[in-house]
Amino acid sequence: MEALASIEASVGDLIGAQEAGLMARKTWDFGPSLMTKKMITKLEKEGMFPVDRAKPPQGKTVPSPGKDYIIVFKDYFSCEICLPFIKFLHQVLEEFDLQIHHLTPNGFLTLSKFCWACKSYGATPDLDTFCTYHELQR
Predict the structure, then answer these.
(1) Is 61 part of any domain?
(2) Other CB atoms closer than 10 Å to residue 81's CB: what's the count?
(3) Does some domain include residue 36?
(4) Do the beta carbons of residue 84 and residue 112 sit within 8 Å?
């Protein structure tokens, strides 16, 4: 009997092309946003982001932010998850061709912990170092 510790597999090894296509189709269509201007005003008052910097998506079901806009989930702010070091975050998004709404709260947490660890040791968060310790999972 083979020990399970010696077995390696990625998500791509575990699902077929048909299943991957179905999963991708399901994850890109979020349905209409439930965010309202009143909810945004409340988050502004709580200091989650500057006044008049956010707007509801107005019925879109597939995220498509315009120039200088990003899609974020209200739950990020409800859980007080901060955006990680902005230059480093930009490098990660560019390198992996991602937008913020592609990241889960756990993804933000991983990036934030990495930035915190770097800053704690007086280092600047670096994409190469991050990639040495972490692997992108779609």
Answers:
(1) no
(2) 16
(3) no
(4) yes
Structural tokens at position 126: 């670096």
Can you tell me the distance from the alpha carbon of 12 to that of 21, in angstroms, rounded to the nearest whole number? 12
Cβ(36)–Cβ(56) below 8 Å? yes
Q: Is the pTM higher than 0.85?
A: no
In this structure, what token pair is assigned to residue 130? 């991050």
Total tally of structural domains belonging to the chain: 1
114 Cβ neighbours under 8 A, 6+ residues apart = 84, 125, 130, 133, 134
Residue 125 belongs to what domain range?
75-138
67-115 pLDDT per residue, tens:
777 777 777 666 666 555 678 888 888 888 888 778 887 888 888 888 8
Output the six-digit token pair for 33.
């946003």
Region at 19 (left for phi over 0; alpha for psi -120 to 50; beta for the rest): alpha
Report yes or no on 114 lying in a domain: yes
